């Protein structure tokens, strides 16, 4: 994209799922990308370097490293991975990134948030991101907030959580008929790239992102119809599952059962007409 070829975007968490997709879409659109990682010399960092990204060290708990990483960039994509050692650490990491972006005079911050809206729910990883976004607003940052709910990759990627989760544990807690807003991580990356390409359109926006709204029962049916078999389902006791993921994921899924989410897919398709629904996603990742 001609307007972006000489500008640089810094991507926090570039070797993770979300950050990695943001890096790939930005590179495809002609941006220079500074891919930030605590382990830039690792395998995933090497992969991004091979695609053309400048992979550099940065740590959300190291303000000096963020100052170096954010120097002379046009924009920053920020997200904090869930499962930090505590909710306060996660909030602190996000505020560290916000303060560094303010010190650097960054022209556009795109924040990878999560959850159903701007009201606290008791789900810690959602509430932490609300606090971070409010901190960014208080600093006066030129901000776009992207707010997905559930990623479609949960249906096929066993490394997201223990493999039993989506098709065994999640239905038990969220309910098989609770309608859930879904988005692929791939499409989140595309939306972030679109936001950087059109800052005048996206700065000041808080976007609830969903390309499909389906219950787990409906998703299972789509999976079976498309692949001729049921999705993998391995029973795991809740106490054992909790050892892997902690309490917050369980709280999240129970919240979804008790609090129906009104999700309109229209705004997502307005931003990204090529966004994949569940059927298209399961076909694409075969």
Kindly describe this structure.
There is one protein chain. By secondary structure, this protein is of the alpha/beta class. It has a domain at 2-149 and 182-211 and 262-275: NAD(P)-binding Rossmann-like Domain (Rossmann fold). It has helices at 17-28, 43-51, 63-70, 87-104, 124-138, 165-174, 185-197, 199-202, 216-227, 238-245, 247-258, 266-271, 278-284, and strands spanning 8-11, 32-37, 54-57, 75-78, 108-112, 143-148, 150-151, 180-183, 206-209, 212-214. The strands form 2 sheets. The chain has a 7-stranded parallel β-sheet with strand order 3-2-1-4-5-6-9, with helices on both faces. Helix 3 packs across helix 4. The two termini are 30 Å apart. The model is unreliable at 1-5 (pLDDT under 50).
Low-confidence stretches: 1-5
**CATH fold name of the domain at 2-149 and 182-211 and 262-275:** Rossmann fold
CATH superfamily of the domain at 2-149 and 182-211 and 262-275: NAD(P)-binding Rossmann-like Domain
Following the backbone from N to C, one meets helices and strands in this order, namely EHEHEHEHEHEEHEHHEEHHHHH
Strand content: 5-15%
Global mean pLDDT? 93
Please outline the helices and strands:
Layout: E1 8-11, H1 17-28, E2 32-37, H2 43-51, E3 54-57, H3 63-70, E4 75-78, H4 87-104, E5 108-112, H5 124-138, E6 143-148, E7 150-151, H6 165-174, E8 180-183, H7 185-197, H8 199-202, E9 206-209, E10 212-214, H9 216-227, H10 238-245, H11 247-258, H12 266-271, H13 278-284
Parallel strand pairs: 1-2, 1-4, 2-3, 4-5, 5-6, 6-9, 7-8
Antiparallel strand pairs: 8-10
């Amino acid at each position: 994209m001609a307007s972006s070829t000489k500008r640089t975007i810094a991507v926090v968490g570039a070797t993770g799922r979300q950050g990695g997709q943001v890096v790939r879409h930005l590179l495809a659109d002609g941006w220079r990308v500074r891919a930030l990682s605590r382990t830039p010399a690792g395998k995933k960092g090497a992969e991004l370097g091979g695609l053309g990204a400048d992979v550099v060290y940065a740590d959300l708990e190291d303000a000096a490293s963020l100052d170096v990483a954010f120097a002379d960039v046009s924009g920053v994509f920020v997200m904090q991975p869930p499962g930090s050692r505590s909710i306060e650490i996660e909030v602190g990491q996000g505020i560290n990134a916000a303060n560094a972006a303010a010190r650097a005079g960054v022209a556009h911050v795109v924040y990878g948030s999560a959850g159903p809206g701007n009201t606290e729910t008791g789900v810690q990883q959602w509430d932490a991101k609300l606090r971070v976004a409010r901190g960014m607003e208080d600093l006066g940052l030129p901000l776009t907030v992207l707010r997905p709910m559930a990623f479609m990759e949960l249906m096929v990627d066993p490394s997201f959580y223990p493999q039993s989760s989506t098709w065994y544990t999640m239905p038990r807690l969220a309910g098989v008929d609770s309608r859930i807003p879904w988005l692929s991580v791939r499409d989140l990356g595309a939306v972030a790239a679109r936001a950087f390409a059109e800052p005048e359109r996206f700065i000041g926006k808080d976007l609830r992102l969903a390309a499909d709204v389906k219950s787990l029962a409906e998703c299972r049916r789509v999976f079976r119809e498309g692949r001729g078999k049921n999705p993998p389902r391995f029973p795991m006791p809740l106490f054992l599952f909790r050892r892997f993921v902690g309490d917050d994921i369980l709280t999240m899924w129970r919240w979804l059962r008790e609090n129906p989410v009104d999700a309109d897919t229209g705004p997502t398709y307005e931003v990204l007409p090529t966004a994949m629904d569940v059927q298209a996603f399961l076909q694409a990742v075969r």
